[in-house]
Amino acid sequence: xxxxxxxxxxxxxxxxxxxxxxxxxxxxxxxxxxxxxxxxxxxxxxxxxxxxxxxxxxxxxxxxxxxxxxxxxxxxxxxxxxxxxxxxxxxxxxxxxxxxxxxxxxxxxxxxxxxxxxxxxxxxxxxxxxxxxxxxxxxxxxxxxxxxxxxxxxxxxxxxxxxxxxxxxxxxxxxxxxxxxxxxxxxxxxxxxxxxxxxxxxxxxxxxxxxxxxxxxxxxxxxxxxxxxxxxxxxxxxx
Length: 239
Ligand SMILES: NC(=O)c1ccc[n+]([C@@H]2O[C@H](COP(=O)([O-])OP(=O)(O)OC[C@H]3O[C@@H](n4cnc5c(N)ncnc54)[C@H](OP(=O)(O)O)[C@@H]3O)[C@@H](O)[C@H]2O)c1
What we know:
By secondary structure, this protein is an alpha/beta fold. The protein has helices spanning 19-30, 42-56, 71-85, 108-135, 157-180, 213-224; strands spanning 10-14, 34-39, 61-65, 90-93, 139-144, 184-191, 194-195, 210-211, 233-236.
């Protein structure tokens, strides 16, 4: 099976300018990967890219504004990355949000926002990226689900539905790449609470939360495994 050093790889990280996504971006860019960070707020993306590139002394992070709910914007993102670099080696489906509401008070607007962002958007993005990974005989797809994709919580029913759904979709995707023999791995993160406010290495996470650096370290570990290793759901949370 084809292998490739991280320094020769191209990654797309949705939501890569903030929180967990930013920690992933810093880790991959630090290993030499070119990372396209994509979400709605262009200024947030641009600042993150500038800061990380300045720290590394090299242009490795590239901002791209897009809304994962819009198919045309998904195709534009994938088209731009392929035009520039020909490959997409790593796709990290990290963008996501929750709209707090109960099963009784839930609104159409709330569940549409959550499902379109956390689930439908991911399926559309994977559909656009996967054929290129298959043609290039190399790829990793990393999905950020949640402990709310394993357990139900009354205050976020649509979020739970989307994150459970994401794991189901990922299992189908893994079965697809197995059946087609594609050199594409599919990993899922199922984090509990991750502190995305106290993110500096010297800062302590709030009680009950893990430091975001543990997400980045686990990503790098998962990607370092042999190409034939199947690592399914990574349950990671504070004790
Ligand atoms: N922090 C936790 O405790 C925790 C626990 C379990 C799972 N998670 C999951 O981890 C992932 C990252 O969350 P986080 O905690 O790091 O929070 P975050 O900083 O708010 O990250 C969410 C990212 O999603 C992007 N996003 C939201 N809507 C989007 C859209 N329509 N199109 C494109 N991008 C969109 C946001 O960027 P823009 O606003 O610029 O679009 C943002 O960068 C999420 O999927 C979340 O569900 C987090």
